[in-house]
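Data availability (excerpt). The following record was deposited with the supplementary files.
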Amino acid sequence: MNRQIDTIREARTSLLEEVEDLTVDQFNQMPEGFNNNIIWNLGHVIAVQQGVCYKKAGLPAFIRDDFGEKFRPGSRPEGIVGLLEIVNIKQLLVTTLEQLETDYYSGAFGNYMAWTTRFGTKIASIDDCLGFLSFHEQLHTETIIAIKKIATT
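Predicted structure:
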C-alpha cells in the first residue's frame, strides 16, 4: 500500500463527512474575504489531481475538459453549482482517487514529466506528486472548514 495515497484517501473521507449535511446554498456561499466557496474547493482538488498526475504523465484525465477548466488554479466560482453537480463532485472525490491508486500500481505513470510548483518545489515523479497532492489538499481542506464555519452560522 502507498502511504501517500492512503493519507489522501483519509483526508478526502474526512472532508466528505465534514460537508455531508450542507445545503446547496452553503456549498455555494462565498463569504466576504474569500474568493471561492466550498464546492469550488472540492472541484479544484479533483482538477489539480487530474492535471498534476495524469496530464504531467502524458495520460488522459478522467474528468471532462470543461470540469478541469472550471476548477483550475486561478479560476473562481461562476454561478451556482446545483445539487446534481455537487453529488457528482462528491463521487469524483472517491472515484478519481480509486483510479489513481489502480493506475499507480499498474505502473501507468512511468513517463512522468518533471515540473516545479508555484511554491518552488520540484516534482520529478508520481511519488513526489502524491506528496504535493497531500499538502495541496490539506490547504483546501482548511479553507473549506473556515468557509463552513461562516456558512453554517
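Summary of structural features: The chain is about 60% helix and 5% strand.
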